[in-house]
């Protein structure tokens, strides 16, 4: 499962491990929300948005597992998750809550993580297997 790490540049391994760790953290957060509140964790948000966020409990875990396995699909899934999660959160904060990026540290962290994932993906992906 991790033999790819021995033949891959250290910086790529570090990026994959850090990214996978942050996705695992996200999965724990989403599982905790599911266990505490069910599919409607955020009463103020529409049902479709709550279902999307709940689905991240599984998708974040899958992305982390694929990244730790050294698979390109992990990078691809990570990019899709981050782009859609940022869009969903941006919509929730600006479109529903009428707040701003400056007032939302959680959204600020999400922007940074999304930039990290999308920015490193092209370089990391070429060192991973299909």
Order of helices and strands: HHHH
- Summed up, the helix count is 4
Largest sheet: none
Q: How many E-type strands?
A: 0
Q: Mean pLDDT, rounded to whole units?
A: 95
**Shape verdict:** globular
Fraction of residues in helix = over 70%
Key features of this structure:
single chain; 130 residues; mainly alpha; 4 helices; globular
Please describe what this structure looks like.
With 130 residues, the protein is mainly alpha-helical. It contains four helices and no strands. Helix 1 (10-37) runs antiparallel to helix 2 and helix 2 packs antiparallel against helix 3. The protein starts with 9 loop residues before the first helix and ends in a 5-residue tail after the last helix.
In short, what is this structure?
The protein has helices spanning 10-37, 47-68, 72-96, 105-125. The chain is 74% helix and 0% strand. The two termini are 13 Å apart.
Write the layout of secondary structure elements.
Layout: H1 10-37, H2 47-68, H3 72-96, H4 105-125
Helix pairs in contact: 1-2, 1-4, 2-3, 3-4
């Amino acid at each position: 499962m991790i033999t790819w790490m021995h033949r891959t540049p250290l910086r790529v391994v570090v990026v994959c491990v850090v990214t996978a760790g942050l996705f695992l953290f996200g999965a724990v957060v989403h599982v905790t929300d599911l266990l505490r509140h069910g599919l409607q964790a955020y009463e103020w948000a529409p049902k479709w948005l709550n279902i999307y966020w709940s689905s991240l409990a599984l998708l974040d875990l899958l992305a982390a597992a694929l990244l730790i396995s050294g698979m390109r699909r992990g990078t691809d899934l990570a990019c899709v998750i981050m782009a859609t999660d940022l869009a969903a959160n941006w919509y929730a904060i600006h479109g529903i809550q009428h707040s701003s990026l400056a007032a939302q540290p959680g959204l600020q962290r999400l922007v940074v993580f999304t930039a990290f994932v999308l920015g490193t993906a092209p370089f990391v992906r070429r060192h991973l297997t299909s």
